[in-house]
Structure of IclR-ED domain-containing protein:
Amino acid sequence: MLKLFRRRSAAATKALLADIRRSISSVQRDGYCAVSWQPAVLAVATPIVLDGLPVYALNMSLQNVERSDALASELGAYLNAFAAKCMEVLRSG
């Protein structure tokens, strides 16, 4: 998919890869990432990682909002807590 995207727009691909790297760093640092891929839309996501299972993601998106670190942090905290509960239930079988 990235190869096709690169052929269409090298500059856009470079920007996309930089955004992906920032999101990975955010997940490693904070447990979640927040992005605004579209105007007035904030998307926040956190992974669910368990040994022996595929990686899943929880995502929450809001429309008609301006991206703010405070809002991203609040939603990220909710998603991190929910992900922890999901992992607890999945581990206990």
Notes: The mean pLDDT is 89. The longest strand covers residues 41-48. Strands lie at 33-35, 41-48, 56-63.
